[in-house]
């Protein structure tokens, strides 16, 4: 039997019990007290309550993340089972559409359509203009990962480690692929599929990264990222496609660079409990449940710097804006740190924490708090 454990719970537990644990040298003095006066601050321009009416929940969580449309509006799914379209400049609600269950992953917005996955195991295609449902497709268990859309296909995984590919026009199932779930603890949710040309790359709870041909589901190669008997060996973050290389994360095993054409291992950095990883220029930037924000060289995986979060803070996600990183914590503030060395600049705390990092356009940042409030804010320097 496979036992699923929520990532946010595991992050908090590891921060409490693991301590330092990251095999890197620290950057210059870290922590807000070492920096002095902040050089930036968050100015909230609007706040919209989406799924905020939940007084009975002790520790609410929101796994939705605002997605920016080319015209400037936002679309986001929330735990109340609704998808919302919101004006980016004012926070005005344009439409809302109930799809049921809880929406525990970002939606996808492609070619004027919104694709939203529900914890009830249903995938919905909605019109961007009015939120009307075009079609609904059903899986075998909860959808908890962001859908991917490319060349008329929609890929999504469920909590039973099934990868589905649907026709984007009709919603009909094209093919599916399943790996055997391990008989031990894994992270709640499924892998996040990524299209690249005529292939789909997707990780699974058994610690494998798989390359499949998108038209047929035929397996091209599999890469075992770590010990297959290891608990929490899930490869559930989206891989980063860097041309000839892919960068993938096993929650227990660390960060891997694999050859895109063959799945051959190029390098491995043993950083446990990586909760998020992004690429910027020559670096891979990430956060771990051991309480660190870090940078690695993407060429060889060697450490560049690390920043130890204040005690008790659980970093879960990050994103970039100009020279800064936004670091979301599960129960506390949003931190802004300098990309070049990880040193903190300022923090903003709307009291309930976050599960996803903000998104930014040229004017504002946008984020959904665990209390179900969607914020639009500016950074003032």
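Sequence proposed for the structure above (381 residues):
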């Amino acid at each position: 039997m496979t036992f699923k454990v929520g990532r946010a719970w595991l992050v908090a537990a590891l921060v409490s019990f693991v301590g330092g644990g990251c095999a890197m040298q620290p950057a210059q003095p870290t922590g807000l007290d070492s920096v002095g006066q902040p050089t930036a601050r968050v100015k909230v321009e609007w706040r919209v309550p989406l799924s905020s009416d939940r007084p009975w929940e002790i520790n609410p969580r929101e796994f939705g993340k605002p997605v920016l449309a080319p015209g400037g509006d936002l679309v986001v799914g929330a735990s109340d089972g609704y998808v919302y379209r919101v004006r980016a400049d004012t926070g005005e609600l344009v439409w809302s559409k109930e799809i049921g269950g809880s929406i525990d992953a970002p939606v996808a917005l492609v070619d004027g359509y919104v694709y939203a996955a529900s914890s009830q195991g249903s995938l919905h295609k909605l019109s961007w203009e009015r939120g009307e449902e075009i079609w609904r497709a059903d899986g075998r268990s909860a959808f908890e990962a962001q859908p991917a859309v490319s060349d008329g296909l929609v890929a999504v995984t469920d909590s039973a480690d099934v990868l589905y590919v649907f026709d984007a026009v009709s919603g009909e199932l094209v093919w599916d692929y399943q790996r055997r779930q391990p008989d031990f603890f894994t992270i709640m949710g499924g892998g996040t599929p990524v299209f690249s040309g005529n292939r789909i790359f997707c990780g699974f709870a058994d610690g494998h990264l798989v390359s499949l041909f998108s038209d047929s589901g035929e397996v091209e190669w599999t890469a075992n990222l770590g010990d297959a008997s290891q608990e929490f060996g899930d490869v559930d973050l989206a891989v980063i496609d860097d041309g000839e290389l892919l960068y993938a994360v096993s929650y227990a095993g660390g960060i891997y660079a694999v050859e895109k054409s063959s799945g051959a291992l190029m390098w491995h950095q043993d950083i446990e409990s990586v909760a998020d990883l992004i690429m910027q220029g020559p670096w891979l930037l990430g956060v771990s449940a051991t309480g660190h924000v870090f940078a690695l060289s993407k060429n060889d995986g060697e450490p560049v710097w690390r920043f130890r979060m204040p005690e008790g803070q659980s970093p879960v996600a990050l994103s970039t804006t100009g020279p800064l990183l936004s670091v979301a914590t599960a129960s506390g503030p949003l931190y802004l740190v300098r990309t070049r060395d990880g040193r903190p600049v300022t923090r903003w705390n709307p009291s309930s924490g976050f599960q996803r990092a903000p998104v930014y356009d040229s004017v504002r940042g946008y984020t959904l708090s665990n209390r179900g409030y969607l914020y639009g804010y500016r950074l003032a320097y």
